[in-house]
Write a structure and sequence with these properties.
mainly alpha; 48% helix
């Protein structure tokens, strides 16, 4: 395997490949390349190989097309096994560091306009049962799915949406009240 869990899945191109496979269940490099038309093909092949070597995707079918072998890929049910607490903590740290770096780059330019760019930050503490939390996540997922296949172009531009659910400090004490 060789690569760290967070290193493998933190890359935006690999995340988009995974999103494609989540939506379509399977895909060939040609199909994925058509959906990710802004990603150069050599780069796409590199990212596909990283995901394959890490055990995140697998070849589910092969066929000969004009003398070459065309492989169909799918996500592995439990990619990279069951990540340890340390790997999950590293992933969260990586996501947060990436978001902070993105904001730092954004604000380092002289022509920033958070209002024009629809910059948004929100943090809320909600009182939810596990069932309510799962229902909310499904509803958020439904909204994301309405937009996840949209391609760049026209007025459409990439926007990084990060959603993290975290336990509240002192949550165990609240349960005993």
């Amino acid at each position: 395997m060789g690569r760290d869990f967070a290193d493998v899945i933190m890359n935006p191109v690999r995340q988009r490949i995974a999103q494609y496979l989540i939506l379509h269940r399977t895909g060939t490099v040609n199909e994925i390349a058509a959906a990710l038309s802004d990603v150069p093909r050599p780069s796409l092949y590199r990212h596909m190989n990283v995901l394959l070597e890490a055990g995140c995707i697998e070849v589910v079918a092969q066929k000969s097309v004009r003398g070459a072998v065309e492989r169909t890929y799918a996500l592995v049910e439990q990619p990279m096994g069951n990540p340890s607490q340390q790997e999950v903590a590293g992933l969260i740290h990586g996501v947060l560091t990436s978001v902070m770096a993105s904001f730092a780059r954004y604000f380092s330019h002289g022509d920033v306009d958070p209002q024009r760019d629809l910059l948004s930050v929100s943090s809320s503490t909600l009182m939810l049962s596990d069932g309510e939390m799962l229902e909310m996540l499904q509803r958020i997922g439904t909204v994301f799915n309405d937009y996840i296949q949209d391609q760049p172009g026209g007025e459409r531009k990439p926007r990084n949406i990060v959603f993290i659910s975290a336990p509240v400090e002192g949550e165990r004490e609240l349960k005993s009240c």
